[in-house]
Design brief:
The chain has 242 residues and is of the alpha/beta class. It is built from ten helices and seven strands. It has a domain of 167 residues: 3-Layer(aba) Sandwich (Rossmann fold). It binds magnesium ion and zinc ion. The site of zinc ion has 5 residues, from loops.
Length: 242
């Protein structure tokens, strides 16, 4: 979506895996603790045969690990060093921040509450919209509350529908993500920050976006925009058209 007017009263939606974290937590779990048949399920998803909800449901049924094992793995996943400064920038600018993820609340909460990150009060007001994961012995139960009824895309968590629900007061939606499952969110946002597979998708489809590598760049962009008196859509020179 192309916007030329200044974007006022932004609200920021963040993908989690690969955006807030370096490594995808779900991939890490599958690679470490799932029966190898998870790969065939992934191929079906990549080919567009199944949505991410059906994909994750089938894949998580193949995982066998204790909570302690999963926690240890999650504790090894790095968080983008610009995440804290992005939260600070948004707090200072009155920009609400929410996490919208196809991944699991269990993993997200474990990772962002890691004491060493010191995120504590920075996370006040940050809501997490994600798939649900609960241990059942060494098995794991996945559940998908956003929305309860599967959407037309078959999303695990339907990012555009969460965004539509939260922008009700007319805020301008800003989305930052990295993956193929972010494409519906990117199509729905007023301003998109993209890296990785999402950036490639945006380039291919001509979706207007700001390319970034780390969240510090998103923070700097928003900080500058706020100091200039409003968030402006990217200028001609920063558009990426391939
Ligand atoms: Mg991602
Ligand atoms: Zn959807």
């Amino acid at each position: 979506m192309q916007t030329t007017a200044p974007l006022e009263q932004p609200i920021l939606f963040l993908d989690f895996d690969g955006t807030v974290t370096g490594r995808d937590a779900v991939d890490a779990i599958l690679e470490t603790y799932a029966d190898p048949r998870w790969v065939a399920v992934e191929e079906q998803w990549r080919a567009g045969c199944i949505g991410s909800r059906a994909c994750l449901l089938a894949q998580m049924a193949l995982v066998e690990a204790s909570s302690a094992e999963l926690d240890e793995l999650l504790d090894s996943i790095e968080v983008d060093e610009g995440f804290a400064s992005l939260l600070d920038t948004c707090a200072a600018g009155g920009i609400p921040v929410h996490i919208v993820s196809d991944g699991f609340d269990y993993c997200i909460r474990r990772i962002i509450s890691r004491p060493r990150l010191g995120l504590g009060s920075r996370l006040e007001g940050v809501r997490v919209f994600a798939s649900r994961l609960e241990p059942d012995g060494r098995r794991w139960r996945a559940d998908f509350p956003h929305p309860r009824e599967s959407c037309v895309h078959g999303c695990a968590t339907c990012k555009p529908s969460v965004m539509a629900m939260l922008e009700r007061e007319g805020r301008t939606s800003v989305f930052a993500g990295d993956g193929l499952s972010d494409r519906y969110a990117a199509a729905a946002a007023d301003l998109v920050f993209a890296k990785g597979a999402l950036a490639a998708h945006c380039r291919e489809r001509g979706v207007w976006h700001v390319a970034y590598e780390g969240l510090a760049e998103v923070a700097a962009y928003l900080d500058e925009a706020l100091r200039d008196g409003g968030l402006e859509a990217p200028r001609e020179a920063s558009r990426v058209n391939v």
